[in-house]
Amino acid sequence: MSVTIKCTDIVKRFGDNTVIPGLNLEIKESEFFTLLGPSGCGKTTLLRMVAGFNSIEGGTISFNDKVINQIAPNKRNIGMVFQNYAIFPHMSVIKNVAYGLTTRNVSKAQTERRENHVLDKLTITPLRDRMPEHMSGGQQQRIALARAMVIEPDVLLMDEPLSNLDAKLRLEMREVIRDLQKSVGITTIYVTHDQEEAMAVSDRIAVMKDGVIQQIGTPRSIYHRPMNIFVANFIGSTNIISAVAGGRTVTVDGYRAEIPALASPLPEGTAVKLSVRPEELLLAGPDVPGIKGTVKSSTFLGNMTHYLVMLDAGDEIKIIQESSETDYLSPGDRVNLTINTDKVNVFSEDGAKNLTRGE
Amino acid sequence: MLRRRRQFDQWTVITLGIILVYIVFMIYPVLSLLLASLRDASTGAISLKHFQKFFSKSYYMKAVINSFKVSVSVTLCAVAVATPLAYIISTVRIRGSSWIRVFILISSMSAPFIGSYSWILLLGRNGYITNFFKNYLGIQTPTIYGLPGIVLVLTLALVPLVFSYVCGALKNTDKSLIEAARNLGSGNFKIIMTIVVPLIIPTILAAGILVFMKALSDFGTPSLIGEGFKTVPQLIYNEFLGDVAADNGFAAAISVMVVAFALLAFIIQRAISNHLAFSMSALYPLEPLPAYGIKNVLCHLYVYLYMLIALLPQICIWVTAFRKTKGLTFDEGYSLQSMKTAVSQMSVSIRNTLVFALSAAALIVLIAVLVSYSTVRRPNPLTNSLDVLTMTPYIVPGSILGIAFVSAFSRQPIKLTGTALIIIIVLAVKRMPYTVRSSTAILHNIPESLEEASLNLGASSMKTFARITMPLMKNGIISGAIMSILSIITELSSSIMLYTGRTQTMTIAIYAQIIRGNYGLASALSLILSVFTIALVFLVFKITGNKELSY
Question: DSSP readout, A166-217?
Answer without folding.
Answer: -HHHHHHHHHHHHHHHHHHT-EEEEEES-HHHHHHH-SEEEEEETTEEEEEE
